[in-house]
Amino acid sequence: MESSRLSVLMALDSMDAGGTETHVLSLAKALIRMGQRVTLISADGLMRPQFEEAGCPVFLFDFEPLGISGQAQRIAGLQEVLRVREVNCVHVHQTPSGLLAAQAASELGIATVFTAHGTYYPQSSARLLMKLSQAVISVSAPVQSYTQRLGFPSTVVPNGIDLSEFYPVQNSNLRLELGISEEAVVLVYASRLAWGKGTACETLLRAMKDLHRYGWQQLELVVVGDGPKLKAIKALASFIEEESGRKFIHVLGKQAHMGKYYHAADIVVGTGRVALEAMACGKPVLAIGNHGYFGWVEPGSYEQAWAHYFGDHGSNAAYSRYLFASEIGRGCRDLAWLHSLGSEGRRWVEREFHIDSNIQQVADVYRAAIGKTQ
Fold this sequence. Notes:
Elements: E1 7-14, H1 19-33, E2 37-43, H2 48-53, E3 58-60, H3 68-84, E4 89-92, H4 97-108, E5 111-116, H5 123-131, E6 135-138, H6 141-149, E7 155-156, H7 174-178, E8 185-190, H8 195-213, E9 219-224, H9 230-244, E10 249-253, H10 259-264, E11 267-270, H11 272-280, E12 285-288, E13 293-296, H12 302-307, H13 321-332, H14 335-352, H15 355-372
Parallel strand pairs: 1-2, 1-4, 2-3, 4-5, 5-6, 6-7, 8-9, 8-11, 9-10, 11-12
Antiparallel strand pairs: 12-13
Helix pairs in contact: 1-15, 3-4, 8-9, 8-13, 11-14
GO molecular function: glycosyltransferase activity
Protein name: Glycosyltransferase involved in cell wall biosynthesis
Organism: Paenibacillus endophyticus
């Protein structure tokens, strides 16, 4: 069983740029490097070329709700892909794609593994998805507690980071493209602009306004991400810049290649996978997530940062423009300290979150799940 070849079908709602999609791309690349077979079913999106370039065949599916007959046709279509690709394990991450893929696999006696990426799933959908799965992976200890509360055990496997994609680079063309001077201190906020993360972004914009008012004219903010709050955040940025009399907030929407934005940053503000990717690029991270404010990620706080998933599943304080401004100011007064945070963070990610180490844990979960169907 240990030496048998895996043929894994990954299921995503879409290939839009986001943490879950980047995680699945990293998994796919690592599995393919191991000599395993990977297939993706998903609606189209910005990251499709990256999956195809990695050697992962993509089958496009629309997961918008349909009637009973339409859903039956979709399941039949999925089952045809499962047969043609000789899939022996389905790996799901989201709803509705996960529910459909898990149901199709269950009817054919094929193993399903569900990775819970957070605590935001509707409880009824999460329970059904875990019931259809032979194994459940949690990306952090708080998520594991969440699955246990719903009645399902899970294995914690941290998000693996592809260090061949996220690594320190000295120069970036982004500053030139955006008209940002080399002397500026650039903050990059990267997140889906929804739920608490959207509120965190609005709070950060107001903190930037305060910092500029008190003389921090060299600060510039780049916001990367999409979501229901994007329009409101663009409007707030325009209002703040009009009041301040200068442009220093760049709201760019969703982007497929995040490395370019991390490389341009002096500070990355974010949570979850963004925090890990940024540290892999040697950048200092101010962790702020769905749950609230965590703070600077430094060697003495690594364990707590990981336990809270960098502010996504636990935090040290509520969102506050004054707290954000104070901590950004503290960092900017000691750029050498920020540089050391970036260097130490890179070493920590290399040690604890390298995709080539984590992928073996994932493969072990796949094989255990397959064993339950035989």
